[in-house]
Amino acid sequence: MTTTPRVAVITGASQGIGAALVGGYRKLGYAVVANSRNISAGDDPMVLAVPGDVGVPGTGRHIIDASIEHFGRVDTVVNNAGIFVARAFTDYTDEEYDAITGVNLRGFFEVSRAAIQQMLTQGDGGHLVTISTTLVEHANSAVPSALASLTKGGLNAASRALAVEYATRGIRSNAVALGVIRTPMHDPSDYETLASLHPVGRVGEVVDVVDAVLYLENAPFVTGEILHVDGGQSAGH
Fold first, then answer.
1. Which of 74, 79, 83, 196 yields a CA-CA distance of 20 to 30 A from 118?
2. What domains are there in the chain, each with its CATH number?
3. Alpha helices, DSSP H only, in 49-167?
C-alpha cells in the first residue's frame, strides 16, 4: 500500500487563481507541483515549485518529470497558465500571437500529454482541468479578444475530445469557463465597468473559481464538461 498522496500539477501558480488553487488542493490533502515563469520554493515541503515558461518547448515535459521524480506520480493537472490580451483583431502583432498561442496551446499540449502518459502508466486514472473563458461562446464587442477565442475555444474542444478518448481508462477531462475574475491582471478601477458584463452585477472572486475546480475534482461522474463560472454571462444579458 502506497503512502504517497495524490499529486496535483498546477500551472500559472505564482499568484491569483493559480496560487489559490495550490491552497485548495493542499486542503484536500494533495501534494502540489506549482509552476510559473517565476516561482520560488516556500515553507511547505508538500509543494514543489518548478519555475519555467510553459510556452517554451520542453517545459511541459520537465514539469511532469519533476512531479514524478519528487512525488512519484501525477493525479491531476490544472492547466491554469494563460495569456489574455483584449485587442482589435487587426492590431494583434505576430509577437503577441506567438506568446498567446505558445502559453495557451503549447503549454496545455505539452503538460497534458506528458501527464496523461504518466497517468496511463500508473493505471489508476487521473483528471485534467483547463481554465477557459466564457468569451468563447459569448463574444462581446466591448472586449475584442479573437485570440482568446481561437486558443481557448480549441481547448474547450480538446477537453471534450480527451474526455471521450480516455474515459474507459479512468482519466477525466473538464474545463472551467470564466467571466471576469478579481485577480492581479485587472486594474481595480475597471471593476465597476467589468461587473456590468455579468447579469449578476459583479465580477467573480478567486474563491468562485477554486470552488468550481474542486467540485470537478470531487465529481467522478463528470467528464467532458465546460463549467461556466461567469455570473450568467454565457446565458445572455
1. 83
2. 7-229 (3.40.50.720)
3. 59-71, 94-101, 108-122, 146-165
